[in-house]
Amino acid sequence: MKHPNRCRWVMMATIIAGIALAGLSGIVSGAEPIHPMFVLGAVLALGGVVFGVITVRCPFCGHSLDLHGFGTEYCSYCGEKLD
Ligand SMILES: [Zn+2]
Fold first, then answer.
1. Among 16, 47, 51, 79, which residue has the fewest nearby CB atoms (within 10 Å)?
2. How confident is the model over 23-44, as pLDDT tens digits?
3. Interior CA angle at 69 toward 62 and 56, to 5°?
4. Which ranges does the record mark as transmembrane (predicted)?
5. 16 CA distance to ligand 1 centroid (A)?
6. Is 42 helix (H, G, I), strand (E, B) or coil?
7. CA–CA distance, 39 with 37 (Å, rounded to integer)
């Protein structure tokens, strides 16, 4: 899984899943006391951000790419085509 656009999708999905899980936990069991599911969701969302920062990079020059936006075709640093 080296393609930055694919990694970005995984990152988005992980963050959304984490937020959904944390939100669901808030709805189901309330904010007090903090439910393990809320913590899990928050960790998942944070993990998604970390994953994105680490993996959404140009495979040619290694420069980190924009985390938002979809389907980056060319690296904005070295100009290489990304797929
Ligand atoms: Zn590049």
1. 79
2. 999 898 887 888 999 999 999 9
3. 25
4. 40-60
5. 27
6. helix
7. 5
Environment class of residue 48 by beta-carbon count within 10 Å: exposed (0-12), middle (13-18) or buried (19+)? buried
- Is the distance from CB of 35 to CB of 66 less than 8 angstroms? no
Tokens 């990152």 locate to 11
Question: Across-strand partners of 81?
Answer: 74
Q: How far is the CA of 55 from the centre of ligand 1 (A)?
A: 13
Ligand 1: centre distance to CA 7 (Å): 15
Each residue's pLDDT tens digit, 41-70: 999 999 999 999 999 999 999 999 988 877
